[in-house]
């Protein structure tokens, strides 16, 4: 009867991937329940930035963190499915996953544009004349 008893942690970890491919339950996480992979302070800051109180309850932070992790995991898994033929996930795969959500898709496009804009500005700022001052010339203190 001990074989029908509760599943140990090792048995559960070994059988978890097989169980998820057959059922519609969410993908298993490889982290311990209650651990904070994102960290509590960033989630609290996000909550405060979107209008919550400065110190939200730990339960609220935990729920939001779980929802956030689940959403990001699902988005990554969907992008992986889209890129299955190529074997490499790209930005275009995430754009495809977000194609029906205009608000999120436009935010992704905005962030990608700003990333390119910053990259161009860094390239422009990397002028050889500016590199000469890095060596501690007497004009560097001005």
UniProtKB/TrEMBL annotation:
One example GO MF annotation: protein heterodimerization activity
Pfam families reported in the protein's UniProt record: TFIID-18kDa (PF02269)
A cellular-component GO term for this protein: transcription factor TFIID complex
UniProt cross-references to CDD domains, sorted A to Z: HFD_TAF13 (cd07978)
Location(s) in or outside the cell: Nucleus
Transcription as UniProt keyword: yes
Residue spans of biased composition, Low complexity class: 8-29
Chain residue ranges for the region called Disordered: 1-51
Annotated coiled-coil segments of the chain: none
InterPro entries in the record: Histone-fold, TFIID_TAF13
Chief site of localization: nucleus
Keywords, comma-separated and alphabetical: Nucleus, Transcription, Transcription regulation
Source organism superkingdom: Eukaryota
GO biological process: RNA polymerase II preinitiation complex assembly
Family that this chain belongs to: Belongs to the TAF13 family.
Protein name (record): Transcription initiation factor TFIID subunit 13
